[in-house]
Write a structure and sequence with these properties.
It contains 3 helices and 7 strands, in the order βαβββαββαβ. It is α+β, with helices and mostly antiparallel strands. It has a single domain, classed as 2-Layer Sandwich (Gyrase A, domain 2), CATH 3.30.1360. Strands 1-7-2-3-4-6-5 form a 7-stranded antiparallel β-sheet. β5 and β6 form a beta hairpin. The longest helix has 18 residues. The chain is globular and about 35 Å long.
């Protein structure tokens, strides 16, 4: 991979596809996508309760931390993605949010579409939010 950031929906999806392919080719343990922290300073920022939104992918599973409101939006999103199902919800004692593990039985393009929907619809990131692939 030669690029690690993108700031529009189409470019974000392309970046995520490239990251998934690189992750699989390298047989790395996981890949991590983070929203640029500058987005939290904007008026149209996502909920800052859990810090910078992030998505992790490994072994056909998408993981993310979310607030209760974000979890509800995720549950409302899943009917649009029938190959994606919540496998596990974990809320450690004293934690602010819930860690969600979603099985993703799909090709890299569909996983990238799902991740883009997570960014826009679940985390409520603005359309031009910058993302970074921070680990592959």
């Amino acid at each position: 991979m030669t690029r690690f950031s993108a700031a529009d929906p189409q470019e974000r999806r392309r970046l995520i596809v490239d990251a998934i392919v690189a992750h699989r080719e390298r047989a790395s343990p996981f890949l991590t996508i983070e929203v640029d922290e500058a987005v939290l300073e904007r008026d149209d920022a996502p909920d800052p309760d859990l810090g910078i939104p992030w998505i992790q992918f490994a072994d056909g599973v998408v993981s993310l931390d979310c607030t209760d409101a974000e979890l509800e939006r995720l549950k409302n999103l899943l009917p649009e993605y029938p190959a994606f199902k919540i496998d596990e919800l974990t809320q450690p004692d004293g934690a602010e949010g819930t860690n969600v593990r979603v099985s993703a039985k799909a090709d890299p393009n569909r996983i990238a579409q799902f991740c883009e929907s997570l960014l826009r619809e679940v985390f409520a990131c603005p359309e031009d939010a910058m993302i970074w692939v921070v680990a592959i």
